[in-house]
Specification:
It contains 8 helices and 4 strands; from the N terminus they run H-H-H-H-H-E-E-E-E-H-H-H. With 163 residues, it is an alpha+beta fold. The protein folds into 2 domains: 36 residues; 115 residues, Nuclear Transport Factor 2, Chain: A (Roll), CATH 3.10.450. The chain has a 4-stranded antiparallel β-sheet.
Length: 163
């Protein structure tokens, strides 16, 4: 009889080890899930700094498709991406070097990003929406709202472009 008990114990070692491995793997997976952003951006100043710096660099280089993609839904409602990109292709923006200077939490869920373009200080306003940082055009540049609401011919005239 003692031999059978020993055999059972020996046979249980691989099963016990397997169960232990599964439990540890499951624990690690659950820990990672609980501490990950699931493909979302992080809601902090450092993350916004990186996003805003890329955004301003794209605008500086007239790569406006990714700029538009960062707009919030109220800003995108002003003009379609195709029309926004078209206007900037025909009338390229060449604002100069963009440099991010400061990021701070503001009121009503907005964050302020202070930056300079060719030495001129400006402020953009961003919100963290559904796991992503989104730029708000109306708060950041109300004059642009007026321009994007205009017909293309009026826009061209008002920005001084000669297509």
């Amino acid at each position: 009889m003692p031999e059978q008990k020993l055999k059972r114990r020996v046979n249980m070692v691989p099963r016990t080890a397997l169960v232990l491995i599964v439990v540890v793997a499951l624990g690690v997976a659950l820990f990672r899930m609980a501490h990950s952003t699931h493909g979302r951006e992080i809601d902090d100043a450092a993350a916004l700094w990186a996003v805003a710096t890329t955004f301003n660099s794209n605008y500086e280089h007239n790569d406006v498709g990714p700029v538009y993609d960062r707009w919030d839904s109220s800003s995108q409602a002003l003009i379609s991406k195709a029309n926004y990109v078209r206007r900037h292709q025909i009338c390229p923006t060449t604002p100069g070097k963009a440099t991010t200077r400061d990021v701070s939490r503001g009121a009503n869920g907005y964050w302020a990003v202070v930056y300079e373009i060719s030495g001129v200080p400006r402020t953009d306003y961003w919100r963290y929406v559904h796991g992503e940082w989104r730029f708000n055009l109306a708060r950041s540049n109300p004059d642009a709202v007026r321009l994007y609401r205009e017909s293309f011919a009026t826009y061209v005239r008002d920005v001084g472009c000669r297509p």
